[in-house]
Records
---
Amino acid sequence: MGKVALVGAAGAIGRSIAAALSAEGRPYRVIGRSHAALIQAYGRDPLAEIAVWDPADPESAARALDGAEAAVHLVGVPYHQFELHPVVMDQVLKGAVAAGVERLVQIGTVYPFGRPRTPRVAEDHPREPHTFRGRMRKAQEDLTLAAHAEGRIQTTVLRLPDFYGPDGEKSFLHGLFAAALAGKRALMIGPIDRPHEFVFTPDAGPIVTRLIDTPAAFGRTWNLAGAGVTTQRDFARRIFATVGRSPKLLPIGRRGLSLFGLFDPLMKGLAEMNYLMTEPVLLDDSALSSLIGPLAKTSYDEGIDRTLAALSRRAA
């Protein structure tokens, strides 16, 4: 494919995809709401073209996407405004179609599945979200897949579990890394002894670029699992051990989140999604590996080392 536009490029996954495109020598466009944030993140890469859009202006999406052959939708919304996910998705899809974009990849989450029925969740697992946020994410996926079914644009959805990495400021694990470096107690979303998996953000970019270039990828959804099953407690132990400290952890479960949620919309949302900590959705990505080949995944130990090194350099 030709030029790829990253809509909502300022986040960790957007930076990972941009890095993969840049490593391949491919020009790309980053689209976001803040010109200053995009300049700070991508201003030094001569392959990056910067465009700004305004979600309040539906036509601005088409202008920002004009000339791109493929797009990746990475747009985030405030956790207390999840009703905006399908609204923004519809706007970007219409803009992409108007601009003549051929292919679109939506980066999704495990939320649309709801409670898992199987130990490993494949793409054909029922999508029966029992939470408001899950329903909004399902509505977003439905819009994306309907656009393909109607022949308007080729689309696909790539679902990721929770992530972490050098640019993962919005990861719920970011505070854990910061606490370990500062020698402080880490606030964690409990319970922390249940199985869980995480994607190291730099691993996502090369997989997304391969997906964009694979015609057979479009018209359905795909899962990308983490680097293995772990627990939050074990993950925390590895982080603190790497900096030579004993773990100091303060887990907060659903009851505590609900209490804080009386005053904080973010905590209220985390309480709603707390089932993911007690009934974790562990993804099966064998279909994706069959489609595009082996999926390179950084081990948790190496990913933790690289994340701590990056955060230490930034602090210095």
---
Amino acid sequence: MLLENLLPGAGAGAGAGVEEPSWSFTDLVDHLRAMGLAAGETLLVHSSLRSIGTIAGGPAELLRALLTVLGPEGTLVVYTACPENSDTSRMARALVEGRSPQEQSRHQAGMPAFDREVTRSTPLLGWFSEEVRAHPRAVRSDHPQTSFTAIGRDAVRLMAEHELHSHLGPHSPVQKLYDGGARALLIGLPIWNITPVHLAEYWLERPPMQLYGCVMEDKWGRHWRHFQAVEIRDGHLEDLGRHLDRELTDRVEGQLGAAHCYLVPIRKAVNLTFAFLQKTNS
């Protein structure tokens, strides 16, 4: 999945022996507004806190700055996925690599079921996604592997009805972000790190399918659930990034602290991705 290629986002400190500025709440608000972030919009944020530099107050101040700029009519969205909840993902296979079949079985038998109220997002997504997930006003979608979390006016609607077979597809928050004209803010990450671009894979005439597995808990108790769904591929993302860099002319670039940022219209990025996939798959 896309998040398995994300740059590490944990930690906002400076390198040893290098004195860096400490970015204040006011600095962050000013930088966000300078990029053209508007009150009332819906914004998906992917971030590497390390790229920003030292934030006075840590991730909570970045969250406060974003919510301040978006205002009471806006909605902030982050990706809070859990690829560890699997027996098929690269991350899941790495966790049991070198173990005997019996040890692998014990590991899978002891894996906790997904609980959208308490299950943490993967550490690969960094501190900011977890900061948003744990916020008292946060609303999380109910997918055990590719959940999103939102805060704001439209959070409940955006996070509703995230179907199991639609990780990043037409029955997920991704489709609603696309339909609603939302934008994505990439903080210190390459332009191809826009999770919604995977929506275009569902539009292919014959998208490749994959067997997925995850641990769930429902009225029948804790159990493994296996299902077929569209295979989410990431081998083409760097080539896609070059395509988006060339064709996504209405993106905005700016700075947040020390981080280079892209502010990208999600609908345009997905449409360009679909054209790219059609060409490369023909």
---
Amino acid sequence: MKTVNNLDEDAPPPATLDVVSEKPGHSRDASPDARCPRRAPRQEARKLDPERSCRLLLEAALDEFAAKGFAGARVQDIADRAGVNKQLIAYYFGGKEGLWNELSRRWAEREASFNQPDAPLDEVMVHYLHDALDDPRGSRLNAWVGLTGGEPEAGREDLSDLERRKAAGEIGEELDTGAVLLLLMGAVAAPVVTPHMVRSVLGMDPQSPEFREFYTEQLRRIVRRLG
């Protein structure tokens, strides 16, 4: 985690901020053009770097959500991880739910960058797998949500891409795309949320390069069999 100067806990939110914001989930990437919602500044506030503060808060929120789930994560703990005043969460994001929504937006952007229509399904799933192995926080967050609930309401999953792939022959006619999606999501998350089963079933360390190479190739073969 990056080191920042702690702010006085009683200090008010920053004043002269011309804020541009920054996105689930699982993404940890921060970009200069990310957006923070504009809010009316307070006269007595001190000037801060808004992009840096937003980035640190989003990283801290992802850490907390992955460790405790949405329901279990506390605003104060997120602020403590980020090393900033907790008032900045409301100032930039409108509260804990705003952090969740911004992380979800970022993940959707990241997902769109590699889940391209012309990419074979097995390559797309390998990208999901490597993303989860490189940064397991998204998979852990989803596991917590399933166990504890309490997350902001989300819309129904869009299956149009899998329906298109089914029409193109990448998924068998007899297979339901929703069931396929659940199967693939489980295959990607398993090494992260059930590492003990990887050791028990395969006798391999789920964090080892050997497992990564083996499981990547097996996932490719399984996905190809779907067609």
---
Amino acid sequence: MGVHCDCDHGCSSGQGQQPHGRYRTVLLLALLINAGMFVLEIGFGLKANSSALLADALDFLGDAANYGISLWVLAMGIVARARASLLKAVSMATFGIWVVGDAAWGLLTGSIPQATTMGMVGMLALLANLSVAAMLYAWRNGDSNMRSVWLCTRNDAIGNVAVMLAALGVFGTGSGWPDLLVASMMAGLALTAAWQIISHARLELVSA
């Protein structure tokens, strides 16, 4: 059964349906990429003592879980997909709150991360997320479940650029505040996206 979409973005030739087979393959690839990046980034985040890298690593883990949920509910009805979107939104909001707490702890302890490691890992993470974003672009205007996947990936790419800027800031100032600032920005992105997804999913539940 097809899912309604904007036919300018990814509908199968003239039929107005989402190509679920192709979308499922893209989600599986995205899941594998995000799981791999989580393992890589959590290790380097701990080594570099970077709140921004740790936040980004947990974001990769959350996205891997989101892609798994999306694969699970892909063939289900609109109500099941909307409820899955609500679950993902709660996980995004939880991530955002955790990052705020981690940044506050870093501010209290005055830790200074390793700028070079931050920059290198941030660049690799950006390439990974741009690849996933390019694969998911066609479904960015789908239902709340598809939109939540797109928003997660978009936020990740923005967060990776911010991590690299933070690395430059840490290198230039010799202090940890750029790292903490970026971690707080990533938390704000997560909380904003969570609110958008919740609003969209609630509308779908009401209409259903």
